[in-house]
Amino acid sequence: MRRLLAGTGWKMNNTVAETRRYGEWFAEWTAGRALSAVDIFVLPPFTSLHAAATAFAGTPIATGGQNMHWLESGGWTGEISAPMLLEAGCRYVELAHSERLQHFGETYDCVRLKVDAAMKVGLTPIICLGESASEKESGRADAVLADQVLTSLAGQPDVATADVVLAYEPRWAIGGAEAATPEYIAARHAALRQVLRQHRGARAAEDTRIIYGGSVTPENGKEILAIEDVDGLFVGRAAWKPEGFAKIIELV
Ligand code: PEP
Asked: Could you report the per-residue pLDDT of 199-221, keeping only the tens digit for each?
């Protein structure tokens, strides 16, 4: 039985002071609420990670990084490693967000190294997968997604894929006006699960959580969550303020 997930990536938003306020708001909101059936994560910018781990302590909210390097230390100016994230209180790390691919030239070969490094120290990678608008138009979405997931997991032949989270985020739906349609999401999630079944076996296909992200809102989230192979919601803009994230968690 897969546990549901609700998460938000803050991107380059929320200072330390804002993070503390977000945490205070949530400490009050979560008190006395039954949230044991859902896993919740927040991915702040690096500078706010420590403040977030402190602010969310005692709540069911776990924190994670938005990226990391695949090496533990060394001459990599501006980078941060898996052990550093762990020390900052992280449980998760997001990898392969489309903005990393688009603006910073990341590739899935590099994501594979990061998945290996994260899993080595016990961080759960949230691996983003998604086709571009032109890949969608040319009917190549499922082939692109299969390649992305298999490349990302290539260094982990034995590990149960329950130890990773897959985030299906169509690149054309991120930061846009509308999410993908429920029919479209259902087809992509089912295809991804079939890739896992074919290459990793029935158990991995059953256990791996595949969450959806891309213009999710409190208004459309319920319908997306009702899709059979959707195991949770991954939210950007709609959850940068605590009130918005609370509305998303309430759906899950
Ligand atoms: C994202 O950037 O991962 C995302 C899902 O953003 P938004 O919800 O704002 O589309």
From this structure: 999 999 999 999 999 999 999 99
Helices 242-251 & 16-30, crossing angle to 10 degrees? 40
- Whose Cα sits closest to atom 1 in ligand 1? 236
Which residue's CA is the closest to the ligand 1 atom numbered 3? 236
Phi, psi of 183 (to 5 degrees): -65, -40
**Catalytic residue ranges:** 97, 169
Between the CA of 238 and the centroid of ligand 1 the distance, in Å, is: 8
H or E element that contains 250: helix 242-251
Residues lining ligand 1, judged by CB closer than 6 Å? 9, 97, 169, 174-175, 213-216, 234-238
Q: Are strands 61-65 and 124-129 parallel, antiparallel or unpaired?
A: unpaired
Structural domains in the chain, sorted by start: 4-251 (3.20.20.70)
Tokens 């089912």 belong to residue: 190
Task: Output the pTM of the full model.
Answer: 0.97
Cα distances (angstroms) measured from residue 247 to each of 165, 173, 250 = 22, 20, 5
